Amino acid sequence: MKFLGYKLKNLRDVLGLSMTDLKKLSGIDQGYISEIENGKKQPSDNTVQKLCKATGIDELYFYIDGPNLSEVTPDIMDDLKTFVSQGKNLPWLLFSMKQAKRGISLKTLDTISDALESETEKDD
C-alpha cells in the first residue's frame, strides 16, 4: 500500500501543527516531512509509527484514499481536534465523520463510545 502524503499535510492543518511542531513531536526532519507530504518519498514503517504517535491517529488513515479531516464542517472542528488527539482508530473516525455530516456532534459520539466501553468492561 502507498502512503498518501497529502493526508499527512491535511492532518497537520486540521491539528494546527506546523512542520516545526511535527518535527518536535516526532523527531522527523522537516525536509523529510515535506518530501513525504509532497509524495516525493515513501516513509519507512518506523517513520509512519513516529507520525502516528505524534498525531494520535491510526496508520491506516494515511493509506486509505478516503475522507480528509478538513471535509468536516468548521463548527465541529474543535471536537474533531479533541477526537484525533485521543487516538481513536480509523473505522471510528470515518464513522464519526459520517455522523458529523448528519449533525451529530463528535462529543455525543464519544460519550456514547465511552459508555459502551464501560458496559463492556463491567461484563468482563
* Beta content: under 5%
Helix count?
7
What is the CATH class name of the largest domain? Answer: Mainly Alpha
What is the molecular shape?
globular
Listing every helix as H and every strand as E from the N terminus to the C terminus, the arrangement reads: HHHHHHH
Helicity, as a percent range:
55-70%
The CATH architecture of the largest domain would be: Orthogonal Bundle
CATH superfamily of the largest domain: lambda repressor-like DNA-binding domains
Terminal Cα separation, in Å? 36 Å
What does the main sheet amount to? none
Q: Residue-averaged pLDDT, rounded?
A: 74
Would you tell me which CATH topology of the largest domain applies?
Answer: 434 Repressor (Amino-terminal Domain)
Radius of gyration: 15 Å
Number of domains: 2
Number of strands: 0
SSE arrangement:
Elements: H1 5-15, H2 19-26, H3 30-37, H4 45-55, H5 77-85, H6 90-101, H7 106-123
How would you characterize the overall build of this protein?
The chain is an all-alpha fold. The protein folds into two domains: 5-62, 434 Repressor (Amino-terminal Domain); 71-123. The protein is built from seven helices and no strands. The radius of gyration is 15 Å and the shape is globular.
Features:
124 residues; mainly alpha; 434 Repressor (Amino-terminal Domain); 2 domains; 7 helices; 0% strand; globular
